[in-house]
Amino acid sequence: MSNATTIRPDEAAHFGKLAADWWDPKGSSAMLHRLNPVRLRFIRSAIDTHFAANPASLKPLAGLRALDVGCGAGLLAEPLARMGASVTGVDAAHENIAAARTHAQAGGLNIDYKHGDIGALGLSGYNLVTALEVIEHVADKPAFIAALADALGDDGLMIVSTPNRTVQSRLLMVEGAERFGLIPRGTHHWDDFLTPVELHDLLADAGLKLGNPTGIAWSVAKGLHLSDDVSLNYIATATHV
User: For labelling, which of 76, 82, 206, 212 has a CA lying 20 to 30 Å from the CA of 236?
Assistant: First the structure.
């Protein structure tokens, strides 16, 4: 268990201010609502492959434990619970945890939400660990990855997504999306984005093997979609070596 803190107080405060309308598909998190179905498509395929689940099953995670790190108000944790998992959600902003608990209770979902630093919570033995659009916001990336690795069971599956540090991501995600109000100002810091090679190396240092990244791209015709193009954003699996 790492003693290094991965939380940036200013980042936690930024996202905490968005908690009240996190679940509003037309609010400040509208882009996440558009992104979530795309991520879930990848996640469901990865779950079916890794756990040899029936693609037709509504509960491919039945009997399994899932941990969503940087869970926000539960936009991913709730679908994981509906897939049958026993879900724990962790977030650095207490406002997000409060909103997540309220929304889960209203939907009749039993999700264990925790506020705090993943490295200090002593979590372990999870079959599935997810950290989507999170690592670019943390203070100590090696400590964060090490904490995720500690939480992941020996035969478990990790799924990570993050923006790539490219000219395209700077233009579209920072200067474009934030300038035109598609994403709240101050959400992204381009220098903190990770290339797939950098993520590979961080995971390798923690004893994890990165799967082939899949791009999350955008076009006028398709909107956000899974793609071979990783220049904007990408999502990938990781497992213990």
Answer: 82
Spans of all domains in the chain: 9-240
Query: How do beta strands 86-91 and 112-115 pair?
Result: parallel
Query: Distance between terminal CA atoms of the chain?
Result: 19
* SS3 at position 231: coil
User: Does the 9-240 domain belong in CATH 3.40.50.150?
Assistant: yes
**DSSP one-letter string for 91-153:** ES-HHHHHHHHHHHHHTT---EEEES-GGGS----EEEEEEES-GGG-S-HHHHHHHHHHHEE
Cα–Cα distances in Å, from 212 out to 26, 128, 201, 231? 33, 18, 14, 14
Cβ-count burial 138-168 (b if 16+ within 10 Å, e if not): bbbbebbbbbbbbbbbeebbbbbbbbbbbeb
Query: What whole-number distance in Å separates Cα of residue 5 and Cα of residue 170?
Result: 27
CA dist 238 and 222 (Å) reads 27
Distance between CA atoms of residues 208 and 215, nearest Å: 20
Cβ distance 134 to 194 under 8 Å? Answer: no
Question: What CA–CA distance (Å, rounded) separates 39 from 13?
Answer: 25
- DSSP H/E element including 51: none
pTM score over 0.90: yes
The per-residue pLDDT for range 38-72, each reduced to its tens digit, is 999 999 999 999 999 999 999 999 999 999 999 99
230 close to 196: Cβ distance less than 8 angstroms: yes
Contact between 208 and 238 (Cβ < 8 Å): yes
* Alpha carbons 80 and 230: distance in angstroms, whole number: 25
